[in-house]
Amino acid sequence: MPATFGQLLTEAREKRGLSIDDAAHETRIPAQRLRYMESDNIAAFGSLTYARSFIRQYSEFLGVDSSSILEGLPEGALGGERDYRYLTQSQGPWLREPAAHTASPAAAPAGSVRSIKSPLPAALGVFVFVLACVAMWGSHMAYMHSQTEPAALKALPVEDDEPASPAPATVGGTNVKTKQVDFPVTAHKAVPVN
């Protein structure tokens, strides 16, 4: 009886003197997935795409030919390149073709950075604009508040009939007419508490 693909993988791993955990560390494939492959449990992967990728990667690591097992796996729902080619020929390309003058990202120089369009700069600009508007409005309101006189500082009407004070006050070398203003005061007598 010929050995199964899982048995070939197990033999190749053991021949290299590796444990499942060592192989998982080297390939970065979870150890449970390696156990699935070595026990021929392809259905445990959930997706044949993952199964194909892990089988290809693990068999390349161990030096085992995986073409026979990969050809034996059933096709996916769309059938791969064949169906994609059919769809693009009948419906047109799904992706826009890259511009002829644009170099591929792989051919870009090592120091260059690809531009990624993000809404963050626009949002930041709007935030700064709103912040500046609020600051200008607050400055205007503070200025307007400082320009209004409180009601207590407004001059009471004073009659000019009263005689001028005997010594006129001088401010900066000019005589200033001053008048005394009496405010009505009411005094309340304290009531003793018994």
What ranges have pLDDT less than 50 throughout 5 or more consecutive residues? none
Percent helix, as a range, is 40-55%
Q: Report the β-strand fraction as a percent range.
A: under 5%
Shape: rod-shaped
Major sheet description: 2 strands, antiparallel
Can you write the helix and strand succession as a string?
HHHHHHHEE
Structural class: mainly alpha
Kindly state the number of beta strands: 2
Number of helices: 7
> Architecture of one domain in CATH?
Orthogonal Bundle
The CATH superfamily title of one domain: lambda repressor-like DNA-binding domains
Structural commentary:
- With 194 residues, the chain is mainly alpha-helical.
- It has a domain of 80 residues: lambda repressor-like DNA-binding domains (434 Repressor (Amino-terminal Domain), Orthogonal Bundle), CATH 1.10.260.40.
- It has seven helices and two strands, in the order αααααααββ.
- Strands 1-2 form a two-stranded antiparallel ribbon.
- β1 and β2 form a beta hairpin.
- The model has no long low-confidence stretch (mean pLDDT 75).
